[in-house]
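Deliverable D5.2: sample structural annotation.
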Amino acid sequence: MKLRQVIEIQKVLGNKIPVDMFTDMRYYSESREEWLDIMELDVIHAIRIIRKFIRGDYDEQSTQWKRIWKGNARGRKTW
């Protein structure tokens, strides 16, 4: 199930959805070497990404981090 589907289910259940859930949010997939809309991520994949960052299982010198710090594909800074 995609994150977008989870949000839609929450709306149907009557839960209020924060406005920032509908803004353009992208994640750089190092395996695909492209930017992906996080709402199109599978829930399991999204959890793995979150766990990776919480545990610190990343190399700050990796390609992914260099691209994130320089800005995403639309020219905006990610952080």
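Annotation notes: Residues 2 and 42 are 4 Å apart (CA to CA). The two ends are 27 Å apart (CA to CA).
The annotation will be released with the project's public dataset once the embargo ends.
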